[in-house]
Q: What sequence folds into this?
């Protein structure tokens, strides 16, 4: 009798755990869909929408700390996508200042959009690999590769931000750090090409992510759709 009760209790506990894990995965999928809409469809500079997105990112970051969420590449990329909204805090904080720091705020907003777009592209790529080449791409869909991709994304975004800001404020920075004046002149020369490259990259990523969203989340059946994350 006691063994039957223990067995029933363990079975009920297992069912509750599975249900809770399923709810967490559903919340993460909803967050990903929300990010697709926010980044690809909604206007970029709307402060209210950005604030709502930042709140959902904070909620998602807390969910990803749950022990019920397994450690895999999609979890790493989702965590980084949520962390990208941390740039918004710097944007809002510096936006209240004047001078050089005040103008950096706009650059942070652009960097936030590019960071979100890049991490969304990484998640789109993984979703494609999961649905179409699950076995052959297993070696690529690892936590190690996701961390390498995350490091590369942050390096690209922060590098672009520093170059563009150094070019915009080259005169002021040249007076503050005279020895680095040649470096600032190089930034001034590189900045127009970097701006053009960045716009082309954003446009290409927007098209790719829009296609992935339509292909995987609009045309794919719910059963296949649920295999991601």
A:
């Amino acid at each position: 009798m006691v063994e039957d009760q223990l067995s029933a209790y363990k079975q009920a506990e297992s069912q509750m755990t599975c249900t809770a894990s399923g709810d967490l995965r559903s919340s993460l999928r909803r967050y990903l869909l929300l990010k697709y809409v926010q980044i690809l469809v909604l206007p970029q500079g709307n402060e209210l929408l950005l604030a709502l997105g930042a709140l959902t990112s904070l909620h998602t970051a807390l969910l990803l700390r749950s022990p019920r969420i397994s450690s895999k590449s999609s979890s790493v990329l989702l965590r980084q996508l949520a962390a990208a909204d941390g740039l918004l805090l710097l944007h809002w904080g510096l936006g209240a200042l004047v001078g050089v720091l005040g103008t950096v705020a706009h650059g942070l907003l652009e960097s936030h959009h590019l960071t979100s777009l890049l991490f969304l592209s990484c998640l789109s790529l993984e979703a494609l690999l999961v649905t179409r080449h699950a076995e052959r791409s297993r070696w690529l869909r690892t936590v190690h590769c996701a961390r390498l991709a995350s490091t590369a994304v942050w390096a690209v975004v922060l590098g672009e931000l520093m170059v563009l800001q150094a070019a915009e404020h080259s005169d002021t920075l040249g007076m503050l750090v005279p020895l680095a004046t040649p470096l600032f002149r190089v930034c001034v020369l590189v900045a127009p090409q970097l701006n053009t490259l960045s716009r082309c990259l954003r446009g290409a990523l927007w098209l790719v992510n829009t296609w992935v969203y339509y292909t995987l989340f609009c045309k794919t059946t719910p059963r296949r759709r649920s295999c991601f994350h």
Remarks:
- The chain has a mean pLDDT of 82.
- Residues 2-225 form one domain.
- The chain has nine helices and no strands.
- The longest helix spans residues 2-40.
